[in-house]
Amino acid sequence: MESVRLSVNINKIALIRNSRGANLPDLTQIARDCEAFGAQGITVHPRPDERHVRFDDLPLLQATVRTEFNIEGNPDPRFLREVMQVKPHQATLVPDGPQALTSDQGWDTAKHHDFLVDVVAQLQSVGTRVSIFVDAEERFVEGAKRVGADRIEFYTGHYAKVFPSNPIEAVKKHVHCAKLAVELGLGINAGHDLNLKNLSFYKDQVQGLMEVSIGHALVCDALYYGLQNTIQMYLRQLN
Ligand SMILES: CC(=O)[C@@H](O)[C@H](O)COP(=O)(O)O
Ligand SMILES: NCC(=O)COP(=O)(O)O
Prior knowledge:
1-deoxy-D-xylulose 5-phosphate binds at residues 47, 52, 102. The chain is an alpha/beta fold and 239 residues long.
């Protein structure tokens, strides 16, 4: 069985860089190093205020990343234009509003059906695989299939909150919806607040999981263990 791929989200590295205005740390070097340390993908999530990764980072990262480049975000006109120019391997559509502190829910794929059909088709027309960020609810998974997505990404923020007190309850809907996604022929990614404590349980329970994207906890762990060790520690959870 293939192991689950680790895509490192480097938004928080960009946040540090932006706090001083110069190019330290160098985001493209970080992406290169993450890959050299074992990351199987690089994820970024440009937001309208560009407080993390900026839109002008995207072409440089596309030229740098040798594994899989995944751009996440709300497909407003600017996001869609920039991502279609860059043509990453994967785009993950996330419904965050412009003021969102961080992602806190997935799409209502029925309510936004027509919009998503259009955006998914546009991105696929330039060769980009499209994943849709959803909560683990049957109706949202079915809706993702209906809009033509290639994959779903399960929002794992709620899982991460409940996991410490009740891991089985926390993962229940994900296990169920993953089976449905596999039946529907959708690939499965997952992310948000995954960490060294909750990752291996999630991976063991959720059959069909292909990829996780992890940023916040991984960057926090790297402050203590260093980036190379930390990436290896996350990879061990996935193998
Ligand atoms: C969709 C998702 O969960 C991630 O893209 C996350 O939102 C990134 O987090 P930050 O932008 O808060 O680092
Ligand atoms: N798609 C989730 C992601 O990229 C990272 O989320 P987090 O680990 O920063 O919470």
